[in-house]
Here is the input.
Amino acid sequence: MRPMTQENLRAAFAGESQAHMRYLIFADQAEKEGKRNLARLFRAIAYAERVHATNHLRELGGIGDSPSNLQEAIDGETFEVEEMYPAYDAVAKLQGESGAARSIRYALEAEKIHAGMYEGAKAEAEIGKDVELGTVYICPICGYTVEGDAPDVCPVCGAPRDRFKEF
Here is the structure.
């Protein structure tokens, strides 16, 4: 693929991915406001944006087998933990942006866990096995992730156990 087309597809993938997430978040807000049909509209179009993002990623050669996809995920999470979020955190603190610093800290703590979970899954995927995985709980406030029992209180943000989402 020629460089300009490749760069355009990367930019389009980023834009479609962001639209997908933004519309799902907007759907949740519409649902909270009692606007069920508006929420449904946002979710439907979010799905279309996901289709576009998937097509772009496929054309870019960004979808591999499970071990390759896991390595890609590990690399991304590790970059966030080691480089991206520490730099973002420093800037937010320097500029006195406490809300941004909190959001960044929440993400950083969760990404550390995600990288480890993906590492464990990769070893299984490389020998052709599915992952041995128990129930996963995610804190809806900070994204803290745990396999097994949810803690009584989130160790990152203090949210109570009954707030955790089960997967």
The beta strands are 136-138, 145-147, 165-166. The CA atoms of residues 6 and 156 lie 39 Å apart.
